[in-house]
Amino acid sequence: MILINGQVHTMAGSTWEHGYVFISGGKIKAVGPMEELAARQQSVGELSERVIDVRGAWVMPGLIDAHCHVGISEEKWGVAGEDCNETTDPVTPHIRALDAVNPMDPAFHDAIQAGITSLMTGPGSSNVVGGQSLFMKVQGRCIDRMAVMAPAAIKVAFGENPKMCYGEKDKMPASRMAIAGMLREELYEACRYREKKEQGNIPKGGEKMRMECWLPVLRKEIPLKAHVHRADDILTAIRIGKEFDLKVTLDHCTEGHLIADEIARSGYPAIVGPDLTSRSKIEIKNMSFKTAGVLERAGVKTAIMTDHPVSLIHYLPICAGLSVKYGLSEEGGLRAVTIHAAEICGVEDRVGSLEPGKDADIAVYTGNPMELFTTTKYTIVDGEIVYNSEEE
Description:
There is one protein chain. The protein has 13 helices and 16 strands. It is α/β, with parallel strands linked by helices. β10, α8 and β11 form a beta-alpha-beta unit. The chain has helices at about 35-45, 105-115, 145, 160-165, 175-200, 210, 215-220, 230-245, 260-265, 290-300, 315-325, 330-335, 340-345; strands spanning about 1-10, 15-25, 25-35, 50-55, 60, 65-70, 115-120, 130-135, 145-155, 225-230, 250, 270, 300-305, 360-365, 375-380, 385-390.
């Protein structure tokens, strides 16, 4: 399949007013200006079975939501469809979103209609350690085939949510001190376990699942995905990340604009949002669409999220657009839902930009997706058209 005559935004540094994307075997085989395609066909005789003339539409990498709960917090079903938080124990690193995501959640189709082709979904923020998040494609019926990286992160949470969930039960944690202390204790035990394993002091069959799941975090293969709203919670997450030499993503980062220089100094990226919602808690009283722009100007790599179902998944490009309205650069807005989201989630080798060898996950829009009246013409996942507006 070849998409021709598109305004191609690769999100890898190149944009062509009249460009093409050549797809083969579920991967991007080539991308470039139309003149190059003509020369390519003349020189090597490559032709596609299917040519789609998109006639000036925007052709982009499929959008990415770097933090949501699609498939694990279903919109309609109340307790029956709510598998986001295991609220019987404040520390549950070994539980996996992979085992709870329902691919039949209608939010997946909403994502497809919006040109969103992949996302990070996983446990909520009721626990100090919530479990293992999952990066996945939005199209399919078998979660194992949809998964791109599992686990992709271990979720941890600071602030009001763990306090309210357990403090009201007269259990730890009832304070921010306890949240930090419980996380440190868990990480300390995980470090001891790693040392014993590296020294050969754990016999075969003596492995502990709860500790094994920390090894990719300690090896910096995947990050702590830290739920942080208030400035002091952001700084506590940074402090603990540095103490244990870990990768950390600062999710929500609601008061990040108040300490942007400190976040930049840490080197940790931010996943900002959801701002398209009410200020439902004390710790988000300073919520603002300006946060992403302030962080960008400070040099912080930033993605935008919906936190679906807090904000609905298909509003992701609108959330990016509102961040641009309040100070994020236009290029930064597009990157926040494509290549920056992919890099922060650790999947930039597969998705996030239109480059040869990457997955053919592509969104075709009537215009800039961050503008309200723009519509999706095609959504392509792994080289297959999964949404065609003309067939709706």
